[in-house]
Design goal:
Number of helices: 7
Low-confidence stretches: 1-5, 202-209
Order of helices and strands: EHEEHEEHEEEHEEHHHE
Strand content: 15-25%
Largest sheet: 6 strands, mixed
Mean pLDDT: 84
Shape: elongated
Strand order of the largest sheet: 5-4-8-2-3-11
Structural class: alpha+beta
Radius of gyration: 21 Å
Helix content: 25-40%
Number of strands: 11
Number of domains: 2
Length: 209
């Protein structure tokens, strides 16, 4: 089975047996679960959520390839193309999703959308640093509420001072996100619109793997 790079870079939302969102996986892993009959595809059609096993999804893909090819991303096989599913549901897994959002550099950059929280400009990750709003020298800790993204220029200007002491202002007060901030970035892509109902209705935190 061979996929175009654009297809393999996509993600698939995984639900447990009770339709609770538990994680995001890559396309290759999703197809492995489907092929082994460990999961089924959940597909949105006219506002309805329909389920298909791997064989049924292959059959449906052939029709979709003929009549609505632009509506899907495609995995190419020797015999035919298969539409990339957006959501799959595990057949037997019923554990609840993790509730804790990991406090790490990736999630901090994602929470702040790679935007300096002082000047408001957006930068590549390589040009951003993490700044303690209240410096450690003044008792500031490493918490969601005290660390923000800052560009090199603003970080140097602020130095070992608080924003007030440096006559600087945060564009937004930092806080702990209710779910993995990377999810909000993906929801901005229309490809993942069908995830929204499973993510917004219950503040589920989805673990990226």
């Amino acid at each position: 089975m061979f996929a175009q790079p654009s297809a393999t870079s996509l993600n698939v939302l995984v639900l447990n047996r009770h339709y609770l969102a538990i994680r995001i996986i890559n396309v290759r892993r999703a197809f492995t679960l489907l092929f082994k009959e460990l999961a089924e595809v959940i597909h949105v059609d006219n506002g309805k959520y329909l389920s298909y096993d791997f064989s049924e999804w292959c059959d449906l893909s052939q029709l979709a390839r003929e009549f609505e090819p632009a509506e899907h991303d495609w995995i190419k096989t020797v015999r035919f193309d298969i539409a990339v599913p957006r959501i799959i549901r595990l057949a037997v897994y019923d554990r609840l999703p993790r509730q804790e959002v990991k406090f790490n550099r990736r999630n901090l950059f994602a929470r702040d959308s790679n935007r300096c929280q002082y000047c408001g400009n957006k930068f590549p990750t390589s040009e951003l640093s993490l700044d303690h709003v209240v410096p450690r020298s003044q008792g500031g800790g490493a918490t969601w509420e005290n660390i923000v993204c800052a560009c090199v220029k603003c970080n140097i200007r602020k130095g070992g001072r608080t924003p007030k002491q440096a006559s600087m202002h945060l564009i937004r007060s930092p806080s702990k996100p209710r779910r993995n901030p990377s999810i909000s970035i993906k929801l901005a892509d229309n490809r993942y619109a069908s995830w929204k109902a499973f993510l917004d209705n219950a503040y589920w935190s989805v673990e990226l793997r």
